[in-house]
Amino acid sequence: MGLREMKKRQTRQAISDQATRLFLRHGFDRVTIADVAAAAQVAKMTVTNYFPRKEDLALDLHEDFTGLLADTVAERAPGESALAALRRGFLDAAARHDPVIGFSGPQFARMLTGSPALVARLREFHEEREDALAAVLAEETAAAPDDPLPRLVAAQLGAVHRVLFQETVRRTLDGEPDDQIAAALTRIGRRAFDLLAPSLSGYAVRPAAASR
Question: Domains, the chain, ranges and CATH?
């Protein structure tokens, strides 16, 4: 990484950190872009260059979130189906209390659910994630452009992850510790993926590597 790129990342991270601190202290809706710029000691335009929407200052894992399912499927092992890869990926994420699947802590969870703007933006994230997954499934299965099957499968898989995310936030707000939430998500997640297995266990299976 070059020095310029490193400085850009540091600036972006500093803006995000200051924004999160202000949002948690005062509430998302009461903090302005100007407040964030002042706290980060940068120009207001600098903030909007890195974060065009105020909501993305609070939901800073946009790319990780929206690309998670598509990346997991694209990187699946030979012989592994899309369903199996996503099941494995979710259970691994639950075990490490990954923020991308909802492990954010009670203070952040209250801020998130207490702001209609953030709730709406998060809904867009889920839709973008589903679209990205559908695109990868279409490519991996060589589906025709007018074939709705990749979108139908992505909708089912996306719905499971959306509900599990909501369950994580709900349990966080109820005061459950992360270890207890992870155990519950593991149990519920396995059941949810098992329900899809009869229809999807043979869909988008990566071909085994050719032997030499």
Answer: 3-58 (1.10.10.60), 62-200 (1.10.357)
